[in-house]
């Protein structure tokens, strides 16, 4: 059983409290991303789950079993780190085989363990058994490195080294795969390819996976669920789409995409029961979010705003005039930084060759559809 449960996990160091009560509930076979800025406690959480770090308090369950007192090598977690942590004097095959040998070190009789230890201490590994050969071969095939088994790891690119690290974790057939910023050292293009590879393997093997990243795009594009962390706590746990459309607070909203966020007051509701929010004296917007609060944050995603072209009209109260401050061509999209009664509004439109483009100083009509005006 590969489910992972973390209950009220606290980790205090001498000077810092890294985790202030983290809860996670990850079902077997799920791909979970742990997303948050540097220093928020992601690595500490992973190290506690893997067993490299002893929690100050709280419980960790893998399957149905509390593992707080189970040593790391018996938790059956595969780990992949940002730094690949490969052995430079071993080739690809040996690097992957190594983790199987390491596991042998913790099992078997005293005599067998002593032998394994001696073998590991010698510079080269002894001839692997048929079973080890098969397992290593399978793991390398998974990461598409079967053809490079004999290659020294120093002769590999960063992306290939990361694949070796992944194969080394997979060869153990772990019940949980823990990855701590595994793609951070790769360039953008390679990162995208590796995302696809990792996701494919995860779905093939249906292996419970926790993937740490500070990159929202990575988290949102790969994971079934995302837990957003801040200052040693989980702020929100949701699917990527929920997180994007209904962030719990401005921190999450901002962390999972660019956003326009304003202070607002709910003044009244319209005939349909939708709240009308005052943002400035002259700007009142209707929102689709039902709320009991009076003081709210108003979130509008840049791609949720529409610039109305000449001749097009919409039936909506949420149409306002704005001035173009900057227009930025981004390739597939174009971004407009607008000014709306002293407030900045960012709009992102799909770029199509035949649409009217606007320049600095133009006045435009913008429509903020009420379902895109999110109150939090
Ligand atoms: P992240 O991985 O999200 O960047 P970490 O889990 O590495 O964050 O760190 C969380 C907090 O705990 C930080 O403030 C960090 O300085 C502190 N911390 C982490 N490890 C140690 C340690 N071994 N000793 C003291 N403080 C630590
Ligand atoms: Mg970290």
Automatic annotation (TrEMBL):
CC per GO annotation: ATP-binding cassette (ABC) transporter complex
Entry keyword Ribosomal protein: no
InterPro entries according to UniProt: AAA+_ATPase, ABC_SmlMolc_Importer, ABC_transporter-like_ATP-bd, ABC_transporter-like_CS, Mo/tungstate-bd_C_term_dom, P-loop_NTPase, Transp-assoc_OB_typ2
The keyword Ion transport is assigned to this record: no
Source domain of life: Bacteria
Residue ranges annotated for the ABC transporter domain, each copy included: 4-256
This protein's UniProt keywords: ATP-binding, Nucleotide-binding, Transport
UniProt xrefs under SUPFAM superfamilies: MOP-like, P-loop containing nucleoside triphosphate hydrolases
GO molecular function: ABC-type transporter activity; ATP binding; ATP hydrolysis activity
Gene3D superfamilies per UniProt: 2.40.50.100, P-loop containing nucleotide triphosphate hydrolases (3.40.50.300)
Name under which the protein is recorded: ABC transporter ATP-binding protein
């Amino acid at each position: 059983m590969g489910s992972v449960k973390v209950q009220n996990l606290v980790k205090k160091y001498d000077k810092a409290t890294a985790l202030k009560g983290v809860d996670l509930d990850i079902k077997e076979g799920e791909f979970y991303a742990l997303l948050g800025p540097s220093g928020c406690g992601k690595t500490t959480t992973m190290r506690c789950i893997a067993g490299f770090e002893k929690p100050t308090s709280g419980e960790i369950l893998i399957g149905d079993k509390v593992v707080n007192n189970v040593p790391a090598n018996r938790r059956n977690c595969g780990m992949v780190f940002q730094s690949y942590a490969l052995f430079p004097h071993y080739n690809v095959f040996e690097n992957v085989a190594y983790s199987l040998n390491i596991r042998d070190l913790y099992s078997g009789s005293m005599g067998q363990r002593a032998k394994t230890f001696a073998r590991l201490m010698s510079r080269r590994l002894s001839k692997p058994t048929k079973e080890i050969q098969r397992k290593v071969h399978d793991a390398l095939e998974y990461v598409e490195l079967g053809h490079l088994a004999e290659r020294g790891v120093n002769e590999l690119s960063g992306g290939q080294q990361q694949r070796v690290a992944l194969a080394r974790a997979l060869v153990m057939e772990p019940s949980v795969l823990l990855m701590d910023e595994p793609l951070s050292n790769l360039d953008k293009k390679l990162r995208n390819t590796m995302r696809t590879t990792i996701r494919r393997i995860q779905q093939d093997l249906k292996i419970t996976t926790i993937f740490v990243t500070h990159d929202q795009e990575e988290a949102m594009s790969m994971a079934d669920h995302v837990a957003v962390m801040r200052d040693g706590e989980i702020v929100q746990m949701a699917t990527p789409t929920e997180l994007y459309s209904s962030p719990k607070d401005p921190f999450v909203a901002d962390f999972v995409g660019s956003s326009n966020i304003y202070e607002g007051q709910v003044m009244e509701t319209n005939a349909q029961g939708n709240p009308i929010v005052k943002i400035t004296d002259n700007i009142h917007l209707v929102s689709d979010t039902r709320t009991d609060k009076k003081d709210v944050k108003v979130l509008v995603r840049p791609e949720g705003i529409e610039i109305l072209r000449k001749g097009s009209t919409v039936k909506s109260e949420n149409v306002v005039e704005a001035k173009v401050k900057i227009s930025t061509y981004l390739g597939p999209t174009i971004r407009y930084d607008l000014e709306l009664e002293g407030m900045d509004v960012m709009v992102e439109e799909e770029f199509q060759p035949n649409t009217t483009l606007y320049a600095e100083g133009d006045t435009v009509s913008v429509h903020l559809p009420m379902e895109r005006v999110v109150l939090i």
